[in-house]
Design brief:
Elements (H helix, E strand, L loop, with lengths): L1 E4 L7 H17 L3 E4 L6 H9 L2 E4 L10 E4 L6 H9 L3 E4 L3 H15 L3 E5 L5 H7 L6 E4 L2 H5 L9 E5 L5 H14 L13 H14 L4 E5 L5 H12 L4 E4 L15 E6 L5 H14 L8 E2 L19
Helix pairs in contact: 8-9
Length: 311
């Protein structure tokens, strides 16, 4: 069996920045540092930070008054920011700059007097945060069927923004449906979707063309990891999402002489290498070395908040 790795894969700049923010906050303020929601969607990352003094909460009421709290990479609503201020919390914002860009787009469209639609998945932290960034009703659409159910006149002043971790195919389909129903609707370009999402989906599509099975290493609650699995399946290849090497089912590997491996944007490379090592144990073949496909080399980096910047 040959193992082929997608490139790029794993951590994106927004995830790296968010983890670094918690690391620096712990170094500067000492434990505990509270984090509002999972800093990124990966249990290994969360457990590692927890072992060093991070405390993850789902409500600001769980944070002691005047304590340090970090907002996750997915972003938060204005209400959460106001609540933190009212309770005297020392808030540090780890929102991915590309998510913050979506917030700014949403606010601009509302200032223009347009009714805002958000393309995304209900309940996802990024969607909740973005919809809470404007003082107006936001209509959520997840599928083309949702577009058909919208009750606006054809000439309504509408605009849309998108969740950054969606499938490019799904985004195009929903946008096309919106434009067909409402020709005057405005929104960001499809290419404004997160660069890491786009690069990883293009890479897994190229990987799927070379292999008999795709394994995506990522958390079950990771939107971008789930989208990678869907992209591979749409390319006609069986694909499975595994959180680590323990979730590999040997039955998947039957009749799969070439196995492709990739990982979501919040997955540490350590977990990918554990999966590769386990595949090598299950099907040892010294004549079939692990191959990494060529791909986009990502050199994006984001600055830390000024208060946490290294001297």
């Amino acid at each position: 069996m040959q193992v082929i790795l997608a490139q790029p894969r794993g951590f994106c700049a927004g995830v790296t920045r968010a983890i670094d923010i918690v690391d620096r906050a712990l170094a500067l303020h000492g434990a505990p540092v509270h984090v509002f929601h999972e800093i990124v969607h990966n249990q290994w990352v969360v457990d590692d930070l927890r072992s060093r003094g991070a405390v993850f909460v789902d409500a600001l009421d769980e944070v002691p008054a005047n304590a340090v709290v970090v907002f996750s990479a997915h972003g938060v609503s204005r209400q959460v920011v106001a609540q933190a201020r009212a309770r005297g919390l020392h808030a540090i914002d780890a929102t991915c700059p590309l998510v913050a860009k979506v917030h700014q787009q949403a606010q601009r469209f509302v200032r223009q007097g347009r009714t805002l639609l958000m393309i995304g998945h209900a309940g996802h932290e990024e969607v909740v945060g973005t919809m809470g960034q404007v003082n107006a009703t936001v209509h959520l659409v997840s599928h083309t069927a949702d577009v058909m159910a919208l009750d606006f006149p054809a000439g309504a002043a509408l605009a849309y923004v998108t969740q950054t971790t969606l499938s490019l195919d799904d985004t195009r389909e929903v946008i096309a449906a919106l434009q067909a129903r409402f020709p005057g609707i405005v929104g960001p370009e499809v290419d404004d979707i997160c660069y890491a999402t786009q690069n990883r989906q293009v890479a897994v599509r190229a990987l799927a063309a070379r292999v008999d099975l795709v394994l995506v290493v990522g958390a079950r609650n990771s939107s971008n990891s789930n989208r990678l699995r869907e992209v591979a399946e749409r390319a006609g290849v069986p694909a499975h999402l595994v959180q680590d090497e323990h979730e590999i089912d040997p039955a998947w590997l039957r009749n799969a002489p070439r196995v492709g491996v990739t990982s979501g944007a919040s997955t540490p490379e350590l977990l990918v290498q554990r999966v590769v090592a386990t595949l090598g144990v299950l099907h040892p073949d010294p004549l079939a070395p692990v191959v990494q496909l060529p791909g986009v080399r990502e050199e994006v980096s984001f600055r830390l908040p000024a208060e946490l910047a290294l001297p």
